[in-house]
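A favour, since you know our structure tokens better than I do. Go ahead and set the record down below.
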Amino acid sequence: MIRLTFASLLAAAPAGAAPLATQLFGSVDTPSNQQPMPIGGYDRGCAAGLVELPETGPTWQAMRLSRNRNWGMPVTIEYIEDLSAKVQAAGWRGLYVGDIGQPRGGPSVSGHQSHQIGLDVDIWMLKPARLDLSRAQRESISSVSVRSEDQRSLNGNWTPALGEVLKLAASDPRVDRIFVTAPVKIELCRTAKRKDKEWLQKIRPYWGHDSHFHVRLKCPPGATLCKTQTPTVKDLSKGGDGCDETLTWWVTDALNPPKATKKEKPAAPKRGPRQYTMADLPKQCSGVLASP
């Protein structure tokens, strides 16, 4: 990839048009020469001083290397290294690690709405059979879905060992929340000890997480420019474990919403990260892009 400067990217934009933040951040292939700092929110921000997860370690492999999204805050890299060693207690060799973030964070041209400040990481549900895959093999291999086709239950790819991996992942105090497909949360509610609510409330149901789980870390100490996500998992769970009546909505009304009794006016489409310009991001993000 050709190294482009912030000034050259701005100059290349059509006259009178602000370039999209996805174009700016997606065109830079190295981290900023700054002290590590997550800036803004998980879905509206950027990241200074990110570090790269090594492509291969003793208990992990970074997947889809062509995407160049194995960059995170130092705390994120440390978390991945720690968790990949801990999962051996559950009978896993280690972890296949999906996207963390771009070299300077920010909105990406494809895939994620979040993963913008170096504190998100996707971990594959696929149990690693080996940890010596070539770069080419890491492009062709895929994870596995643990959800049934009707989206209401788990399939044969789910194992109790994967539940133990999720418990280990969520029990780390650095974790804010973990997104999984709803049937996973339902199964954990069924099998986990109810006294385990502190880690269980961090497991949050959300669409699109049937083949990987998405770990979101808390803003690290001293990260004064990092925006904590609200509502908290404690608020979402009403202080409990999140195994209440709201959980069944994901596999009932969410899949078969009640028919509207009257015709409603379509809501105006919301602008998302794909449409953000630099004006939508924290002002410090311009400095992140301008850094050598």
